[in-house]
């Protein structure tokens, strides 16, 4: 903002315009409500020909409706050069009524640009404000910025421009009312050299020659529907596209750089199908005449749902059958489905303020899994996504430093912190819970009512609760005395989730249930945990294994003051039968049973018909048992005996649950003398499933179930880490065969799904030349998914000097690692037991440089922290990191939430080591 302020002061002195103090007296963080934009006419001229001078200039005309008399116009502008002599203001009701801007001031804290008017603006009148602006196309991956790619034929760098406005960066591109509830239609006109293509939210209306600049054109787009500023998008590029419009449907195109257009086939086929699914689900046709999706080489967010012009990282949109694995393909499908769900949830109906960001992100995450499930049912995407979200949230939300799904936002800088796992995965998880207790009919009817009622407007979560309550009562999905708001507020307005303790009376066939917040930090007294959640209770018994019925058989309720009401369940079986609560993990809670129930479950898992327990509930039992042992509510002996049944397990989800949990133990125990026992235990656990899946042999073409592909991929990775059977030598033989290829960039004999395992294992066991060979493949690759696999694998080396060099390469833009990908390389080094200490030292010694490298998108810097939090378990290291944080607050600005969670996770590791290390070691020793 300094630049803007300086320019304003200079121009004021030149023009003799009075200039108010540069700190506005209005200091509230939200815009005043006296004015509303009615329409924007935005003209932007973009210069891309000279790489030394990539810039834009333009003019915005805003029709402003006055709701209350006022003497000023306050809107947002940031880092823009504005010549205030050229600002005009006219009353549209009459040419005779003159008005003008008498002075301007800037509030840099809130990015406000404040204009004092010559005459009072009168309620009911409409004014036209015209403002010029200009700036460089920045390198910061936000606002209106530059990106580039190398044209391999001409061997030159090609430049393009693109926008990223969410949450509050439209103000970097043009002066505007940059809050979500100031919706208005936009007419966008782009000026650029005629060799480029211009894209925006709407279809092209007309193209005319630019009279002032030779070979330049003006491209005007149709007027948009009313929309929030963060959804405006435009780009000037030389990309190619693939059309894929379905009959009688919206014009659909997928764009990428010309040398990657062959990677658009999958996305261009999947996109229109999922769009059509949503039209049916929501009962509302997609409101725009066209939709474009475009893969941007430099892009910080995973993807962005701009209405009608959806932008993606290349890895999120492009798919190459020759280089991308099944995991890569599922990621592309899931992200496209997420962004297209936003066209309704977020774009058509937008949250009033960022407090309810989760209404956008939680919904798009949940509805995306419904969309993928509908189009590719053979993937079982809904089960996988649901369990993945639950495993993430069980961890993140068990921290005291977590936050509610719906959280107050009082500074723009706080908004980006909300784009986290709580808004996305926890938001999605509680919506899935609601879908399951309401049933399909009332859930869908409630959503349709909400979307219709608030179309082209803004809403809060209470508006959604009203629509859903109405539908729930209409379809008798809830008793009349229950309302969605009471139930769901307990999940969205308080932090955390409950653990439900089930104490059975086997003689009477009853169970007493209690709830309290589950926390990983065991130093927090039980009395301080508190909280009450409305919990839909579903359960299955050994005699009645009805796991498909997820409807609640009872509810745990809260009183008016948020206190827990006691709950007893009756009609349970006798003392020879288990009970499992939370069928298909339909609700976000952990369950602890009495010892007898755990033993009955272990008996069925190890000796009985364990497959009759639903696969998600098998994953749940593993996760619950290992968590409860971690925090001391359960014995490690019980947990490890339960996990041993995995030698019989042949499904993906229970193994995924186990590996997620065992990884946490591994990260600590591998730095201790007792790692030997853990290693032998893991070998014993993994060998049967590794052999069952034919090891690392390429049997993928014969696998019918897609989940078995994921299982084989995951087991192979763990088997090589623990030197199981022939894993390492088979991996190395694949790698040697690739190195022997005369044209390794064109022909790769390593099976696609095994590449992460083969590369990492071969680099870990290999020579300097093995590393150099893979680094060259990275440089030559044209496929984003392959580049990420290679980046991660290069961090597997055990050579200190190589890892040290790799750390330097990671943050050197000239080396070809794009900024958005640097954290993958850093994490790979830091998760390596040898690289961990090097990465921590590098981070602590270079924190200023790293902060500047990522600024202003500090969220990307926060992704460097998990390896530290997960592998620090000594009190001295914890104290060191705490002191480092205190001494470097300036270089960790904007990372406050991530730092807090890092320190708390470290503390829980220290506690675990002190409390459980010996007990776990003993129970493992008895099993090997």
From TrEMBL:
Cellular location(s): Cell membrane; Membrane
Transmembrane segments: none
GO process terms (BP): peptide catabolic process; proteolysis
Reaction catalyzed: Release of an N-terminal amino acid, Xaa-|-Yaa- from a peptide, amide or arylamide. Xaa is preferably Ala, but may be most amino acids including Pro (slow action). When a terminal hydrophobic residue is followed by a prolyl residue, the two may be released as an intact Xaa-Pro dipeptide
GO cellular component: cytoplasm; extracellular space; plasma membrane; side of membrane
Membrane topology: Lipid-anchor; GPI-anchor; Single-pass membrane protein
Protein name: Aminopeptidase
Lineage: Eukaryota, Metazoa, Ecdysozoa, Arthropoda, Hexapoda
């Amino acid at each position: 903002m300094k630049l803007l302020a300086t320019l304003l002061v200079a121009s004021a002195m030149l023009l003799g315009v009075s200039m108010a103090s540069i700190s506005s007296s209005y200091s509230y963080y939200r815009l005043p409500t006296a004015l509303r934009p009615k329409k924007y006419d935005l003209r932007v001229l973009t210069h891309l020909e000279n790489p030394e001078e990539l810039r834009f200039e333009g003019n915005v005309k805003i029709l402003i409706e006055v709701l209350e008399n006022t003497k000023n116009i306050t809107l947002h502008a940031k880092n823009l050069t504005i010549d205030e002599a050229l600002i005009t203001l006219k009353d549209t009701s009459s040419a005779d009524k003159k008005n003008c801007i008498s002075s301007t001031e800037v509030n840099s804290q809130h990015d406000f640009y404040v204009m004092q008017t010559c005459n009072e603006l009168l309620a009911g009148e409409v004014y036209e404000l015209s403002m010029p602006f200009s700036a460089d196309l920045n390198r910061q991956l936000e606002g209106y910025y530059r990106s580039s790619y190398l044209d391999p034929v001409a061997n030159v760098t090609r430049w393009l421009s693109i926008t990223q406005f969410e949450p509050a960066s439209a103000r970097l591109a043009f002066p505007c009312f940059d809050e979500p509830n100031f919706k208005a239609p936009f007419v966008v006109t782009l000026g650029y050299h005629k060799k480029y293509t211009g894209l925006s939210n709407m279809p092209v209306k007309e193209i005319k020659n630019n009279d002032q600049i030779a070979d330049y054109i003006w491209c005007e787009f149709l007027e948009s529907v009313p929309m929030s500023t963060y959804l405006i998008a435009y780009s000037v590029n030389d990309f190619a596209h693939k059309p894929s419009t379905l009959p009688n449907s919206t014009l659909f195109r997928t764009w990428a750089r010309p040398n990657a257009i062959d990677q658009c086939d999958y996305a261009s086929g999947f996109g229109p199908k999922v769009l059509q699914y949503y039209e049916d689900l929501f009962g509302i046709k997609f409101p725009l005449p066209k939709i474009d999706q475009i893969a941007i080489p430099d892009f910080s967010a995973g993807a962005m749902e701009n209405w009608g012009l959806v932008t993606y990282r290349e890895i999120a949109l492009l798919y190459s059958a020759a280089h991308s694995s099944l995991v890569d393909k599922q990621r592309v499908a899931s992200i496209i489905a997420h962004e297209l769900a936003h066209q309704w949830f977020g774009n058509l109906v937008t949250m009033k303020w960022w407090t309810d960001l989760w209404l956008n992100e939680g919904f798009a995450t949940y509805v995306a899994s419904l969309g993928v499930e509908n189009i590719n049912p053979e993937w079982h995407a809904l089960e996988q996504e649901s369990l993945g979200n639950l495993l993430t949230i069980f961890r993140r939300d068990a921290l005291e430093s977590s936050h509610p799904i719906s959280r107050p936002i009082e500074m723009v800088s706080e908004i980006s912190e909300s784009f986290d796992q709580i808004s996305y995965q926890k938001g999605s998880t509680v919506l899935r819970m609601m879908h399951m207790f309401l049933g399909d009919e009332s859930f869908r009817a409630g959503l349709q009512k909400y979307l219709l009622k608030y179309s082209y407007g803004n809403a809060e979560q209470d508006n959604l609760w009203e629509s859903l309550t109405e539908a729930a009562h209409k379809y008798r999905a809830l008793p009349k005395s229950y309302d969605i708001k009471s139930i769901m507020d307990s999940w969205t307005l308080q932090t955390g989730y409950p653990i439900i303790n089930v104490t059975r009376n086997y003689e009477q066939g009853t169970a007493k249930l209690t709830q309290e917040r589950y926390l990983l930090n065991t130093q927090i007294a039980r009395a301080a945990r508190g909280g009450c959640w409305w919990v839909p209770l579903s359960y299955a018994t050994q005699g009645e294994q009805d796991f498909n019925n997820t409807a609640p058989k009872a509810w745990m309720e809260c009183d008016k003051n948020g206190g827990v009401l006691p709950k007893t369940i009756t009609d349970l079986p006798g003392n020879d039968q288990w009970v499992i609560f939370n069928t298909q993990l339909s609700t976000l809670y952990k369950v602890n049973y009495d010892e007898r129930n755990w033993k009955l479950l272990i008996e069925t898992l190890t000796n009985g018909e364990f497959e009759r327990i639903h696969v998600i509930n098998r994953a749940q039992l593993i996760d619950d048992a290992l968590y409860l042992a971690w925090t001391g509510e359960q014995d490690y002996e019980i947990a490890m005996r339960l996990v041993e049944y995995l030698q019989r397990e042949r499904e993906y989800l229970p193994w995924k649950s186990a590996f997620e949990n065992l990884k946490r133990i591994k990260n600590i125990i591998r730095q201790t003398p007792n790692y030997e026992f853990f290693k032998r235990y893991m070998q014993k656990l993994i060998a049967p499933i590794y052999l069952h899946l034919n090891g690392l042999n390429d049997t993928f073409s014969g696998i019918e179930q897609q989940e078995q592909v994921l299982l084989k991929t995951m087991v192979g990775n763990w088997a090589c880490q623990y030197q199981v059977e022939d894993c390492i030598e088979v991996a190395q033989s694949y790698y040697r065969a690739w190195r022997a290829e005369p044209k390794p960039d064109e022909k790769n004999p390593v099976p696609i799904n095994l590449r992460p395992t083969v590369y990492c294992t071969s680099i870990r066991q290999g020579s300097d030349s093995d590393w150099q060979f893979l680094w060259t493949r990275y440089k030559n690759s044209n496929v984003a998914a392959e580049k990420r696999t290679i980046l991660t694998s290069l961090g597997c080396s055990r050579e200190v000097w190589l890892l040290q060099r790799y750390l330097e390469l990671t943050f050197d833009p000239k080396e070809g690692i794009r900024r958005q990908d640097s954290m993958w390389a850093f994490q790979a080094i830091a998760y390596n037991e040898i690289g961990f200490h090097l990465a921590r030292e590098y981070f602590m010694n270079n924190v200023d440089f790293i902060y500047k490298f990522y600024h202003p998108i500090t969220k990307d810097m926060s992704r460097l922290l998990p390896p530290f939090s997960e592998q620090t378990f000594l009190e001295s290291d914890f104290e060191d990191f705490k002191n480092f944080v205190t001494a470097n607050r300036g270089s960790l600005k904007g990372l406050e939430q991530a730092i807090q969670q890092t320190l708390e996770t470290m503390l829980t590791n220290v506690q675990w080591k002190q409390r459980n290390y010996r007990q776990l070691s003993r129970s493992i020793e008895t099993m090997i």
